[in-house]
Write a structure and sequence with these properties.
Number of helices: 12
Order of helices and strands: HHHHHHHHHHHHEEEEEEEEEEEEEE
Shape: globular
Number of strands: 14
CATH class of the largest domain: Mainly Alpha
CATH superfamily of the largest domain: serine acetyltransferase, domain 1
Helix content: 40-55%
CATH topology of the largest domain: serine acetyltransferase, domain 1
Number of domains: 3
Amino acid sequence: MKEKRHNIIARRGSLISDSFYTMNKVKKLTSNYSPANPKKNKNSPNRREPTCWNPERMLKTLLKNSGEMDEKGFEKSLPKLVDNILESYETFGGMDHLEGKDLPSKKVVIEVLEDLLLVLFPGYLGKENVTKTNIKYFLGTTLASVYTRLTNEVEKSLKYICRKITECPLDVCQKRAQVVVGELLEKIPEIRSLTRGDIGAAYDGDPAAVSIEEVILSYPCVLAITTYRIAHEVYLRGVPLIPRIMSEHVHSLTGVDIHPGAKIGKNFFIDHGTGVVIGETAEIGDNVKLYQGVTLGALSFPKDEKGQIIRGIKRHPTIGNNVVIYSGATLLGPDAIVGDNVIIGGNVWVTSPIAPGTKIAIARPELDYKKKKA
């Protein structure tokens, strides 16, 4: 049996060896490798050669750890492991919430968001076949379910902040949650109107777009901006936690980071999307187009006399109407006020006002062309 296992491990080592470069090339990838002084590499105390880059070392490690563990070994060590983890809860506080009180369920919030997207784009998302004959039933059941689940999560979120300030009447958070969710659902026609403008801006602004259907189904900006418009309505009503759960969930899917507190106008388009950051107090007008990697961020945060960051002040840029900002541009701070009809070139760094009708770009770099040797 041992001989068979060793043969398997040996074959695995052979496969690893065949799948990597030669050892000389591997050494060049290590951080302390010096082609001019191989002896220095060998004796360097900082030199690290990962096991996965060294088939011989990997084989040796596999053989060393190839002993079979006693079936009851883990069961015997489990109580001690549990005690050690419990001790870490006491030592490193702030990372557990064992009672589960007054915190919304991230899973439920994301499920509710997905259902709201189904309502906004019926027939495009989800598995159900939505038609004109069953759309009324679909909307009724989906909205009723969203109302019940989201009200519960909003109530928990309000209690979370309420109990940090003072003990409030037991039913005040529940009643406020019902109002917040009711108002959000009533905003759906308005959100759809804004979203239709965003989709149209994407289709009109991207010559690679084949159809409106393609834009809705595949463009990450549609998911990011639509989620922002939902989360923004919840944010405006003073609900903590839930707006950020929504926006950060979609941030992880699209690479587009829009804070729900930002103010964004009509017909907004983010081309490509990856790496775009829009801060909490950023303001964006109508008909604005951003390319990938654009940052509307903050400068160093001012602090109070206790050294704490001052919150609740304007920290991010203001963008006017009909503005185009190309990839990699960085606009920082509240003084970065961009007027209407401005074009900002790629990789530009802006911290001060830009007058309307301005085109701003980095000076053209000097390029050094050399003919390749034959």
